[in-house]
């Protein structure tokens, strides 16, 4: 039994597809399939159900996956411990970020890291915040910049709060609410434009509506905050974003409206799992480029 066989098994189970798994581990599809077949022969059990286009673990496969993940994590920790002793920074750091991130310090941190550690590979993906946090938990990403509600479950992760702010509504200047205030119940009666499910701002908004026993009417969703503001500026609804999203929008065509009974703040955080020296150095560079608020 080899670690690479366990890595391939986990990749296929996570991706539910041999082609995507092969791309993830940078091995040919036939190579991945052959190694998993060899593992199955050694264990005397079929680990993956290949009867449909979506590959799923069998009962034996689910049992094997639990231990495969533990073994791979232990091997990674062993390598990291040796690297710590030898002061070695190597490997590949997988970074995730919210869609349409506009924080220059984030990209500056990536640039500085690249020049300080040219031998360390980097990759970057954009995704909804809930997916980013989940992928860090699963070990698919090493560090991510994500939007979360205040008080989010950070168990098993380390976090660094970059930004903490309240939700705000944005309306066109001719709207009677421009520059004023609104309650959540009143906001729920308006046609809303905001970020989609999975975004930190949306999680805060949905949670606040649930807290006061109402549900908003979201007419338009957009992954990029600037698009949310642009749609609202065209009179298609009331934008609900964080304060900075409204302040930094290029259009600057909306007037802020304070949501008087909103309690939960929206956070922008770096999240990561304790691990390799390269990850710690990446977190350090990103945190340096961004505004530090608090670390846990």
Automatic annotation (TrEMBL):
Give the molecular function GO annotations: DNA binding; DNA-binding transcription factor activity
Q: Which domain of life is it from?
A: Bacteria
SUPFAM superfamilies, sorted: Periplasmic binding protein-like II (SSF53850), Winged helix' DNA-binding domain (SSF46785)
Gene3D superfamilies given in the database record: 3.40.190.290, Winged helix-like DNA-binding domain superfamily/Winged helix DNA-binding domain (1.10.10.10)
Gene Ontology CC terms = cytosol
> Which InterPro entries does this one have?
HTH-type_LysR_regulators, LysR_HTH_N, LysR_subst-bd, WH-like_DNA-bd_sf, WH_DNA-bd_sf
Q: What Pfam families has UniProt attached to this entry?
A: HTH_1 (PF00126), LysR_substrate (PF03466)
Keywords (A to Z) from UniProt: DNA-binding, Transcription, Transcription regulation
For this protein, the record's PANTHER family field holds: HTH-TYPE TRANSCRIPTIONAL REGULATOR YBHD
- UniProt record similarity statement: Belongs to the LysR transcriptional regulatory family.
UniProt name for this protein: LysR family transcriptional regulator
The species this protein was found in: Rhodococcus rhodnii LMG 5362
